[in-house]
Design a protein that fits this description.
single chain; 237 residues; Rossmann fold; 9 helices; globular
Length: 237
């Protein structure tokens, strides 16, 4: 196949699972009460809290949010609020977006060769832009043509991937989806996309056997006929 667009997940694919679980999530938990106390009256935050109340009537939104955080629920208002909280951390330099060192050189090489790039993550679009905009490799957001989150649909439903391809004006058959989660890859394949599972030893990902598997992005390039990077991989903290 000829890949016209690479659609990538973030956690476990471009970035360490530990970064999200050990840096981003705890930061949002610590900052939640102060953030709500200061900004609950702002229209953007007030709209999120209204959505929380609609999903959990009669309960304090802060209690609902903490429960969702503890269970890592993929709920859109939570993900949107986390994105706003993380924006504070990134803007203040308290948080820097982790990327595996093999990722950035490949993204740049693919984009330079005319391959389009997009992101589909359960984290909000705002959070995605923050991670790539304040990454260890600098601001990478100009490389991407689109960012998609759960507002597009669930990551384990084929319709979500069809919708992303349509939004970007591409045929699903010309799109390669990268993720560490086999069930997400199943859904993308059902929509007609090519798939590749990222199996990174540091994250303990188990190879499913249902999809082509690679451990680093240069392996993806070799397997799917994408350009190889000229620049060396940079260290990722």
């Amino acid at each position: 196949m000829s890949v016209r667009l690479v659609l990538t997940d973030i956690e476990g694919t471009t970035s360490a699972i530990a970064f999200v679980k050990e840096t981003l999530f705890p930061y949002a938990e610590r900052a939640l009460d102060g953030f709500l106390a200061e900004r609950a009256g702002e229209p953007e935050v007030a709209a999120i809290l209204d959505d929380v109340r609609a999903l959990a009537p009669g309960q304090d939104p802060a209690v609902t949010l903490r429960g969702w955080m503890e269970r890592d629920e993929k709920v859109t208002p939570l993900k949107t609020l986390q994105g706003l909280i993380w924006r504070q951390g990134f803007a203040g330099g308290e948080v820097v977006g982790h990327l595996w060192p093999d990722v950035t050189p490949c993204l740049r090489a693919w984009r330079a060769a005319g391959v389009r790039l997009a992101v589909f993550s359960s984290g909000s679009v705002a959070a995605q832009r923050l991670l790539f905009g304040h990454s260890v490799a600098g601001d990478l957001t100009p490389l991407f043509d689109g960012f998609f989150d759960t507002r597009t649909g669930a990551k384990r439903e084929a319709a979500s991937y069809a919708a992303i391809a349509a939004a970007l004006g591409e045929r699903p058959g010309d799109v390669l989806f990268l993720s560490d989660v086999a069930e997400e890859l199943d859904a993308a394949r059902a929509a007609g996309m090519a798939t590749c599972q990222l199996v990174r030893a540091a994250d303990g990902t188990a190879e499913s056997g249902r999809h082509p598997a690679c451990s680093i992005f240069p392996d993806v390039a070799t397997r799917f006929g994408l350009p190889m990077p000229d620049e060396p991989a940079r260290d990722a903290a």
